[in-house]
């Protein structure tokens, strides 16, 4: 079975996370990503076929033979004392299909073991720290008091830091092909298509990076410049979203009914509700003292329950964003309400999730973690009608990670 173009792109963009969920040196993390994409033996001593060899052998990707032509590159941030983090901060690569004359810039999502990703690139959304569009790179956050007027296009400091890392960090330069901008400039072709894609954090970074490099895509020299963001949080304010959405108009995938230039958003996924739709995530207590939510009913009364915690967390996040954010064009979808059970063999099986009601509310953080992971990762595979690639074996973590919430690789 060959997948249509956008579902194929989804698998390839998620594959950019092959260096995530690991604690190791930057060279080794990069090697994990290289092996995940292209195959080989990773630094843990585990052999892996590679996503591209696996897909090409099974004729899964639309257009046929795709391959990595730039990167992958992987950046680990350095703290004020010059000590480099042992977790990936950002990663990116470019793939190419000759049959389609199409390039894909695939950007990694939040790394579940990177506190910097969670706190800064995902969470630095204070209105006073937003920056006018386009940001000056390399980007350094500056506090604005009062905040930038809502009529001025602006994006979050976290998003600006993310695209700054992708374009200016030395580790994000391919030793043979140079930096991303130079590489893309050398490949501009009036008959070629360029796609930017990414999931979660990269669902915000990919459209923003495309817009930064090609603010007028119709006159950029390419046949088309397109974007496939999935599960992305809101990058900026209404003025920014309005300008972006008028420039990157929805376009039909010629191989399917899917659409380019929209942020695919699962109705049950919290991330695309951030930062302008957080009020929809959880409601005040119902008559039974529980909290209706996008995941079902969360238990309020009792011990070790999650309803009150989630309700307060969402209120805090709404206050953090301050009502300044407005989403780019979103395509809201409702996949099958389940998750991938990996069991002991490949492929994984699709299993239903519980229906949490007042009669049986969600009561534990373990249930919440499974739900967040399934709705933020697993269900997008289900929506696009694809199965995740085989897992790559990794060594045990050197320290306890943040919650993985179903990290895809």
List keywords for this structure.
alpha+beta, Rossmann fold, 409 residues, two-stranded antiparallel sheet, five-stranded mixed sheet, globular, 28% helix, disordered C terminus, 10 helices
Describe the structure.
It is a single chain. The chain is of the alpha+beta class and 409 residues long. The chain is built from ten helices and 17 strands. Helix content is 28%, strand content 18%.
The assigned CATH architecture is: 3-Layer(aba) Sandwich
Shape: globular
DSSP helical segment count: 10
CATH class: Alpha Beta
Mean pLDDT: 95
Task: Write a short abstract of this structure.
With 409 residues, this protein is of the alpha+beta class.
Helices and strands in order:
Layout: H1 5-14, H2 26-38, E1 40-41, E2 47-48, H3 51-57, E3 66-75, E4 90-97, E5 102-107, H4 115-122, E6 131-132, E7 154-155, H5 157-168, H6 180-187, E8 193-199, H7 201-213, E9 224-230, H8 238-247, E10 251-252, E11 259-260, E12 263-266, E13 291-293, E14 296-298, H9 307-321, E15 330-333, E16 338-341, E17 349-352, H10 365-384
């Amino acid at each position: 079975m060959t997948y249509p173009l956008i579902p194929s792109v989804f698998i390839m963009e998620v594959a950019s996370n092959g260096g995530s969920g690991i604690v190791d040196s930057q060279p080794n993390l990069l090697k994990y990503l290289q092996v995940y994409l292209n195959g080989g033996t990773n630094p843990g001593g585990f052999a892996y076929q590679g996503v591209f060899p696996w897909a090409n052998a099974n004729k899964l990707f639309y257009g046929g033979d795709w391959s990595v032509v730039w990167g992958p590159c992987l950046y680990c941030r350095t703290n004020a004392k010059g000590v480099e983090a042992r977790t990936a901060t950002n990663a990116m690569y470019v793939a190419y299909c000759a049959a389609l004359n199409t390039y894909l810039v695939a950007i990694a999502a939040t790394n579940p073991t990177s506190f910097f990703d969670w706190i800064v690139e995902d969470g630095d959304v204070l209105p006073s720290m937003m920056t006018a569009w386009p940001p000056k790179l390399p980007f350094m956050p500056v506090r604005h008091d009062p905040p930038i007027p809502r009529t001025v296009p602006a994006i979050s400091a976290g998003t600006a830091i993310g695209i700054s890392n992708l374009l200016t960090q030395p580790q994000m330069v391919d030793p043979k092909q140079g930096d991303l901008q130079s590489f893309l400039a050398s490949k501009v072709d009036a008959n070629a298509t360029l796609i930017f894609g990414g999931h979660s954090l990269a669902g915000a970074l990919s459209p923003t990076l495309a817009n930064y490099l090609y603010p007028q895509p119709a006159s950029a020299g390419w046949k088309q410049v397109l974007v496939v963001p999935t599960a992305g949080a809101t990058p900026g304010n209404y003025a920014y979203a309005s300008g972006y959405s008028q420039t990157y108009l929805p376009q039909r995938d010629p191989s399917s009914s899917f659409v380019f230039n929209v942020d695919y958003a699962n109705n049950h996924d919290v991330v695309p509700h951030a930062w302008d739709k957080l009020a929809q995530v959880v409601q005040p207590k119902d008559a039974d003292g529980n909290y209706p939510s996008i995941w079902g009913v969360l238990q309020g009364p009792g011990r070790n329950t999650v309803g009150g915690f989630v309700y307060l967390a969402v209120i805090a996040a709404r206050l953090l964003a301050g009502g300044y954010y407005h989403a780019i064009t979103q395509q809201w979808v409702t996949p099958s309400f389940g998750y991938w059970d990996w069991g002991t063999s490949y492929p994984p099986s699709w299993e239903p999730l519980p229906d949490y009601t007042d009669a049986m509310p969600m009561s534990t953080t373990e249930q919440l973690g499974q739900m967040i992971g399934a709705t933020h990762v697993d269900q997008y595979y289900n929506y696009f009608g694809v199965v995740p690639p085989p897992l790559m074996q990794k060594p045990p973590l050197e320290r306890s990670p943040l919650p993985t919430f179903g990290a895809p690789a």
